[in-house]
Design a protein that fits this description.
By secondary structure, the protein is of the alpha+beta class. Helices cover 18% and strands 31% of the residues. The chain has a single domain, classed as Beta Barrel (OB fold (Dihydrolipoamide Acetyltransferase, E2P)), CATH 2.40.50.
């Protein structure tokens, strides 16, 4: 009985990864897991849409899948704790520091060097160019967080 319980505890986190990988594929995204190598950094808005500055947060991960380094670009407006026109990262994204683990589902850059669109797609039908993506943290015990890029408050900007 103890061996069965131990096996369940050891393999439960792998089930979460498998489920998220399947969900990502269903939602037309590319799935990466890995360790953050360069902490999240704020990137000021280069565009304003309907009075909302569209800023980003950038970090780098080393992917488990192939050992390569990937840039991960996050749209701050999709963070659940985004403050309109803020000149700093949402706290949930600022907490993405080197050494932490993440799961990302989104669209790879055309040159393969990074991934973006790691946010929900506002209930639109997913496509490979507009997947229903996500960004989640993975704790040291394997617990996977909710999607950090799940807010739909600003979906109206693209409708």
């Amino acid at each position: 009985m103890k061996k069965n319980l131990l096996a369940i505890l050891l393999f439960a986190p792998l089930c979460a990864f498998a489920t998220d990988a399947t969900t990502c594929a269903t939602n037309k995204g590319t799935y990466l897991t890995g360790t953050i190598t360069t902490s999240a950094k704020f990137q000021a808005a280069s565009q304003t849409i309907q009075g909302v500055q569209v800023s980003h947060t950038i970090m780098y991960i080393k992917a488990d899948q192939d050992g390569r380094s990937y840039q991960v670009a996050m749209d701050n407006v999709y963070a659940s704790d985004y403050v309109k026109n803020s000149t700093s990262m949402p706290p949930s994204l600022a907490a993405l520091t080197a050494g932490k683990r993440v799961e990302a589902c989104g669209q790879k850059y055309s040159d393969g060097s990074g991934i973006h669109w790691v946010h929900n797609n506002c209930n639109a039908t997913p496509t490979t160019s507009a997947p229903n993506g996500f960004l989640k943290t993975v704790s040291s015990t394997g617990t996977v967080s909710a999607n950090l890029e799940r807010s739909q408050t600003y979906c109206y900007l693209w409708n």
